[in-house]
Amino acid sequence: MSAAHDLVAGLAGALSPVAGDLATAAAIVLFTMGVRLLLLPLSVAQARGERSRRRLLPKVRELQRKHAKDPRLLRRETLELYRAEGTPLAGCLPALAQLPFFTVMYRLFLSATVAGHQNLLLAHTLLAAPLGQNWIGVLGGGILSPAPLVFLGLFALLLAVAWVTSRRVPADAPMAGVLRLMPFGTVAVAAFVPLAAGLYLLVSTAWTAVERAVLHRRIVAPAA
Prior knowledge:
The protein is mainly alpha-helical.
């Protein structure tokens, strides 16, 4: 966590001449984008896997029909089919790989001290809202006071990104209904984590939406 503190603080210091009071928030945005760039190879593998799985869908359905009464054999035969076709099984790995970075951001803006020193990042704000506070913690002055309004703006942006993401879930995807609802969970999470972690969620989910649109067009979608 000390390394993350030094990185965010260093970025904020470098951005301060141009970003002013928004420097720390901008540093969190850059930190998140750096994480997503680091994980880009996993996302590419996931997109290629989606294309391959769509191409193999008729064979998978035939296996499902053939082994409907033997789920264990069905799983084994399906995995062997994917392996024989060289289908990457990245699955949810890009999302899971982000968890340590999100956890670091969450803890960084909750800890009063870092490496034995006062955590000065907790004094920084995004507009009127402290980056180390959550939505519940800023409601004392009323829901329409400046700090809660910043959170409401964050929730609105997260809802917009979740709506776009849910619209891109294919109708024939397994558990499509659940997959369409899952993106909206980020709004609930953002209400209970520090604003800094909520900002990480917003940037990361927006990145995912754009990334999937680009990779879907260039990798997943079959050539015309």
